[in-house]
């Protein structure tokens, strides 16, 4: 006849065994983030500032990640074929906050994008800071 304690011991052993299996349940860690290839929405904090106002720390969602990029030589000019994608905004919504301690005549409104969806795509200079030539 099983007792309450034997059930608890069995459960404890099962939980211990599961916790010792590193590949059974992926865990978020700095190592996994370093290996991550793709584009995702991730929480980001920055200091919103503009001339004539105090700063305000804002936590929002932004695009984060790295995308597959490759180059290969070809025989015709420009002698290289490249496939360069960046992690960029696919869908956003704009949020406006009031900055503190603005001087008279300075509009305290500060508008920033909140990422709703991110993708690996060609860099658009209208929404993303891109390096266009080396």
Structural write-up:
There is one protein chain. The chain has 134 residues and is an alpha+beta fold. The chain is built from two helices and six strands. A two-stranded antiparallel ribbon has the order 1-2. A two-stranded antiparallel ribbon has the order 3-4. A two-stranded antiparallel sheet has the order 5-6. A hairpin with a 6-residue loop joins β3 and β4. The termini are far apart.
- Report the strand count: 6
Q: What proportion of the residues form beta strands (DSSP E)? A: 35-45%
Q: Report the end-to-end length measured between terminal Cα atoms.
A: 76 Å
Shape verdict: elongated
Q: Identify low-pLDDT runs.
A: 1-31
The structural class is: alpha+beta
Rg calc: 24 Å
Main sheet makeup: 2 strands, antiparallel
**Helix and strand element order:** HHEEEEEE
**Count of individual helical segments:** 2
Helix share bin: 10-25%
Strand order of the largest sheet: 1-2
Mean pLDDT: 78
């Amino acid at each position: 006849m099983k007792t309450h304690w034997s059930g608890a011991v069995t459960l404890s052993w099962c939980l211990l065994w599961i916790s010792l299996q590193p590949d059974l349940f992926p865990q978020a860690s700095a190592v996994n983030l370093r290996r991550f290839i793709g584009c995702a929405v991730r929480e980001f904090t920055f200091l919103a500032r503009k001339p004539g106002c105090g700063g305000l720390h804002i936590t929002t969602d932004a695009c984060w990640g790295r995308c597959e990029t490759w180059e290969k030589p070809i025989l015709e000019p420009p002698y290289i074929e490249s496939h360069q994608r960046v992690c960029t905004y696919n869908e956003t919504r704009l949020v406006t906050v009031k900055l503190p301690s603005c001087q008279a005549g300075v509009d305290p409104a500060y508008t920033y994008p909140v990422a709703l969806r991110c993708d690996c795509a060609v860099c658009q200079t209208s929404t993303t800071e891109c390096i266009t030539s080396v």
